């Protein structure tokens, strides 16, 4: 219906402006068939959006315009197998593909700039046919629930947010990203996913789950928070990380993790949470950590915990192990609040317990520990506690939704 109105409009624009490069102005043009797509071929640019209808297909080629200023949208289409353009270079708005079950060819050899990529529930899409380097500019990227085994063709140096989840065949993600100004979420992809970000220098929020290896040799600053849940790596090293400026660093439920090393980390604006990483017996990779703006909460099978430079914890200091850590406790007792007999470097409640069989069952960010034995004046435990990130909770919901579409 919309297309019928628009095709004459396009034709009219074409005849008026035939001499020069033709910009076709539409609000949204709907493509129901290849004939509609061919109607666009004479436009060198489209000012507006292109909607590919649920009934369009099986092959749609939108070659012609080199720029589409608005969105390119293809939703809920169970027919189309191939969407292509040989020369489209820029999509100003969203490149949104969702619930397109048979789409197996996505060929955009000229595409370099996209406002946002939103690709969700594309179970037949096994590869991208993009140029080299491909898309080098995009503000936000969501790639969820696809059959992609590689993201070659997307080569960004900076991005606002990037969410890569539930791509079960994805086993390698190597990116030149230098900074992420809002959020990087990686979760529930291939079980052997190796993530390598050799150029990443700063990032705001980062949530990494279910990855097998993770490399950030240049990471210097986490402006917000970094959390690592249910990963399979045995060692985590952030050799250049100096600070998490405002929020938490957390490692929860990483069953193989035996070594966390952040040799240059001096301050955490929020809290430090390390819980239920049962292979981690020593926490001794924080030689420079001096200041923690929130709480320190550690739960696990520890035998030894060391924070040799620690002298300012604004929140609680709450440590509990399944094993005997009494010699570590003796050291930290000296930093406890004066009301608990220490020097006051720890301003919240101090608690340190050994031989707590249930140590690993408490992975929450609150500091109301199950541990007994340590003293507790108990008043301001949560005041400077670890923070909860609503943006990350939102992304978890997106992942769940994507899974439900399978
Ligand atoms: C996905 O698209 C199919 C058509 O191919 C449609 O029947 C189905 O309702 C869509 N699913 C959702 C969750 O929108
Ligand atoms: C990109 O994501 C950020 C944070 O999620 C959001 O504030 C912003 O509006 C998004 N930008 C676009 C162009 O979608
Ligand atoms: C983010 O990274 C890009 C590409 O590396 C760079 O041009 C830009 O200056 C960086 N922005 C900041 C604020 O560091
Ligand atoms: C994050 O911190 C780095 C280094 O201090 C800074 O260059 C960058 O602008 C900050 N980014 C944001 C979004 O605040
Ligand atoms: C992936 O990580 C999530 C936590 O973000 C966890 O709930 C889930 O069980 C993990 N899946 C696997 C297969 O490890
Ligand atoms: C680590 O930081 C130092 C000092 O800022 C810098 O010279 C070095 O290149 C960084 N290393 C990496 C791998 O980025
Ligand atoms: C832990 O990892 C760091 C950095 O990779 C390494 O230097 C150190 O030897 C490791 N420690 C153990 C006990 O494996
Ligand atoms: C961690 O401690 C629990 C409780 O004592 C124990 O059941 C579990 O086997 C320990 N795990 C490891 C890897 O040591
Ligand atoms: C602790 O981690 C194991 C996986 O190593 C997981 O099965 C268990 O549910 C986790 N416990 C809590 C309380 O998160
Ligand atoms: C608890 O926190 C409140 C508000 O931050 C503060 O006024 C009060 O003095 C604190 N109490 C103790 C016992 O630290």
TrEMBL record:
Cited Pfam families: Ecm33
A Gene Ontology term for the protein's cellular component: cell surface
Entry annotated with the keyword Glycoprotein: yes
Location in or out of the cell: Cell envelope
InterPro entries noted in UniProt: CWI-Assembly_Regulator
Main location: other
UniProt GO BP: fungal-type cell wall organization
Signal peptide region: 1-18
The keyword Glycoprotein belongs to this UniProt entry's keyword annotation: yes
Keywords: Glycoprotein, Signal
Name of protein: GPI-anchored cell wall organization protein ecm33
């Amino acid at each position: 219906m919309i297309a019928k109105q628009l095709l004459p409009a396009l034709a009219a624009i074409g005849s008026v402006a035939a001499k020069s490069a033709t910009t076709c102005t539409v609000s949204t043009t709907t493509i129901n068939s290849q004939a509609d797509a061919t109607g666009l071929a004479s436009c060198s640019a489209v000012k507006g959006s292109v909607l590919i209808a649920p009934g369009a297909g099986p092959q749609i080629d939108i070659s012609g315009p080199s720029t589409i200023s608005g969105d390119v949208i293809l939703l809920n289409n169970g027919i189309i197998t191939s969407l292509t353009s040989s020369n489209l270079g820029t999509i100003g708005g969203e490149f949104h593909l969702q619930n397109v079950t048979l789409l197996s060819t996505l060929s955009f050899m000229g595409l370099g700039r996209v406002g946002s990529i939103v690709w969700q529930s594309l179970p037949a899409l096994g590869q991208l046919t993009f140029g080299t380097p491909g898309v080098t500019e995009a503000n936000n990227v969501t790639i969820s629930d696809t059959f992609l085994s590689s993201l070659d063709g997307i080569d960004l140096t900076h991005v606002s947010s990037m969410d890569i989840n539930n791509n079960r065949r994805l086993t390698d993600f190597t990116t030149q990203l230098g900074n992420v100004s809002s959020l990087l979420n990686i979760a529930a992809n291939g079980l052997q996913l190796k993530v390598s970000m050799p150029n990443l220098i700063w990032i705001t929020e980062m949530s990494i789950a279910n990855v097998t290896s993770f490399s950030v040799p240049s990471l210097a600053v986490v402006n917000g928070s970094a959390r690592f849940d249910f990963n399979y790596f045995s060692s985590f090293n952030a050799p250049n990380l100096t600070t998490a400026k405002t929020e938490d660093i957390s490692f929860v439920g990483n069953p193989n993790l035996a070594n966390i090393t952040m040799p240059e980390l001096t301050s955490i604006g929020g809290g430090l949470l390390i819980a239920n990483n049962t292979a981690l017996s020593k926490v001794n990779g924080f030689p420079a950590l001096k200041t923690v703006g929130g709480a320190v909460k550690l739960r696990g099978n520890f035998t030894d915990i060391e924070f040799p430079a620690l002298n300012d914890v604004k929140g609680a200091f709450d440590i509990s192990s399944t094993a005997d850590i009494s010699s570590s406790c003796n050291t930290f007792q000296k930093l406890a609040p004066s009301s608990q007999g220490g020097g006051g470097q720890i301003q919240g409640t101090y608690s340190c317990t050994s031989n707590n069989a249930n140590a690993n069952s408490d992975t929450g960010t609150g500091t109301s520990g199950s541990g007994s034995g340590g003293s507790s004046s108990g008043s301001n435990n949560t005041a400077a506690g670890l923070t909860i990130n609503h943006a990350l909770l939102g992304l978890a919901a997106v992942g769940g939704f994507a899974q439900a579409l399978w």
